[in-house]
Amino acid sequence: MRSPVPGFIATRTECQRKISHLLRNGTQKEGLRAAAALLKSRVCSSRAESVVHEEQNAKRYYVSGMVQGVGYRYFVERAARHLKVAGYVRNLRDGRVEAYAIGPMASLAALRQALERGPDGASVAGVVEHDAAIEPKFADKFSIEYDA
Question: Which structural domain, as residue segments, surrounds residue 123?
Fold first, then answer.
């Protein structure tokens, strides 16, 4: 439901979309400043303040070992959602698992620890980490992808 008052965002979802748009377009600092200004102006309600996060970073992880056919992707999905990290996980044809994650550095470090541990039944031989660009397509949620 749109607000009848011009410039006022009626729902939390609308506010989240507006802030996400601000964060995705332009530099990270500019996006955070604009989102904070939006909240301070009370265009969005104070309930939406939790939408503005620390500076977002992206990492790509390649996990090797016995990590396919043991529930590894589902384990990563649960860990990422618990850490409030966006991105995806998928199996690669060469037997590795790729995880792409977007979030604050502390959350990404915690995710890497989970990747190194893996679920019961998995045997992680190594995790290779690379900095990555933030892909807006994967910035809103964490998912299991099947296209590798």
Answer: 57-144
The yes-or-no answer on residue 73 being catalytic is yes
Report the pLDDT value the prediction gives residue 11, as an integer from 0 to 100: 57
What's the pTM? 0.65
Q: Please state the domain count of the chain.
A: 2
Task: State yes or no: is 57 an active-site residue.
Answer: no
Q: Is residue 68 part of a domain?
A: yes
Of 1, 47, 44, the C-alpha closest to 21 is: 44
d(CA 19, CA 50): 11
Average pLDDT, consecutive stretches of 10 residues, N- to C-terminus, the chain (148 residues) = 42 62 61 59 48 76 96 96 95 96 94 95 96 91 85
CA dist 37 and 59 (Å) reads: 28
The catalytic residue among 73, 90, 93, 117 is 73
CA dihedral 111, 113, 115, 121 (to 10 degrees): -130
12, 91, 93, 117: which one is catalytic?
91
What sign has the CA pseudo-torsion 105, 107, 110, 112?
A: negative
